[in-house]
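Appendix B, record 7
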Amino acid sequence: MKEAIQGYEIQNTATKKLPKWKRTIFHNETTDTIFFPAGNMEVMCAMYDGIPIIPDKKHNYLPMDWLHKEFPNDGYNEIEEVIRTKIIGI
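Structure tokens (predicted):
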């Protein structure tokens, strides 16, 4: 079965301007997994752990649940909650 993956772009605010790739997330609707932009260190750890990665252009996106489990002090848990309720509506 083919997985359904939907991309979302979060708009810049008046006070915070981020590049498009940092404002892009992906939602795997088949597994209900949210993928968030990640840095090189996180991607290397994910590759070692066998975690799925979504590549998009020159950037990589990792599952948010894995990110906030492996990097609990980086605020991924709070970000995921906002994304689920306000952007994706789940």
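Remarks on this record: The first helix runs from residue 40 to 49. DSSP finds three helices and five strands in the chain.
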